[in-house]
DNA sequence: TTGAATAATGGACTGCATTCTATTAATTGC
DNA sequence: GCAATTAATAGAATGCAGTCCATTATTCAA
């Protein structure tokens, strides 16, 4: 996914990008990542197989673009520091994340799986998806620390990894992510 | 992997089990999970492909048996409650786990990936591998709570998920698991 | 000794992601 | 128009997991 305005040669058909992402998004949400073949995606998009591979280097990359650019807006903006307590902000953030994962959790699990088999894709996923979300929570915790809502000895980076880790761990082991979990994480982080 | 002492029929060749596990263990450690094919495993074991599938239903199941039965001993026994503090016991446990994952971490990552694509295998892995290890840490934390090393308001189950989650999350995103991480987790759990 | 039951074997088969190849199409600079 | 360049296309080829099949082997019970 990059271009450099070449001086000659046939130009890319820009509509193919959108057609492929849209086809991938629709099919993956309808049937699930594992049940969607490359053949089905290119057929739905009306392009040749190689056209897909000219743009993305794997099914996982295309789906990461398709599903999580759409959804990239979820939790893409920093967590708003409204008047509420950091505890409430964290819980609200988790509830929002879990709600989105009701729709796309299966896809995220497939993406995480793909990242374990492809180091390049792991890096891409980490930089584009994982670290920004981790940083949002780290920032929230730093603000909380500055305001005294958590003690000065706490480690916001470690805590952020433990928070994300907790629901990754639950999700990857087949447990549902519900409001009870969001509350339990909040309580454990902001304990008395 | 089960038998019921049938009353007739050709008996299983018991040596094939060991040959397959040994071949899988050796090949996966030497080349890495993704680079080992079923064809290579059965060739090394000197049996037919179907003989493998008579015993395990996928490459992931065989490797889970092969690598983590061998290694099942790591952290398979409850964490010894020696005289040391629970904080020290937790850190020692994590250091031991991380040391083993230097050898088999890549395989564990592949197993977790496989579990995301196969619900039956996910259940098997969870029951046989994940939950027992989670319970060990939960027990440790309960003992610590009974002795007052952590406050009565803490939630040992949630904490255990956060501890395991933290290193799963780090591992699955390509970070090394070192002594510093073990120490940081310990400090965050047993904070002042 | 024979039949029923189950295992082992070699090889064929299916479905899939990804790569490769040859051909045709669109563009720029001349 | 023409050469050079890059894209799109259809389809073949590769490599692999998992399944299916026909044949042969081993055991038990009658």
Automatic annotation (TrEMBL), chains A, B:
A molecular-function term among this protein's GO annotations: DNA-binding transcription factor activity
Gene3D superfamilies reported for this sequence: Homeodomain-like, Tetracycline Repressor, domain 2
Keyword Ligase annotated: no
InterPro entries noted in UniProt: Homeodomain-like_sf, HTH-type_TetR-like_transc_reg, HTH_TetR, Tet_transcr_reg_TetR-rel_C_sf, TetR_C
One Pfam family of this chain: TetR_C_11
Keyword Transcription annotated: yes
Family matches, as PANTHER family: HTH-TYPE TRANSCRIPTIONAL REGULATOR RUTR (PTHR30055), TETR-FAMILY TRANSCRIPTIONAL REGULATOR (PTHR30055:SF148)
Alphabetical UniProt keywords: DNA-binding, Transcription, Transcription regulation
Domain of life: Bacteria
PROSITE patterns in alphabetical order: HTH_TETR_2
Location of the HTH tetR-type domain: 14-74
Name of this protein: TetR family transcriptional regulatory protein
Stretch forming the signal peptide: none
DNA-binding region location: 37-56
